[in-house]
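Structure record:
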Amino acid sequence: MNAKPGKVRELARRVADLPGVRMANACWGVPDIFVVVEVANADELNKLLIDKIQSLEGVVRTETHIGTE
């Protein structure tokens, strides 16, 4: 995810505390924050991403890549 300038560390901490988030690390370069989540289904992913992460003040953009086992 990308963040407004000056918001990267704060957002990484806030996102890391959300249920389902396994990792949220501030990065150098693009993206600003690399987030790994684990959810049971697409509905849970929608709720986490759209309702929780994208609604945080300072979030500019998210990009989702889905991995499977």
In short: The mean pLDDT is 96. Residues 1 and 64 are 9 Å apart (CA to CA).
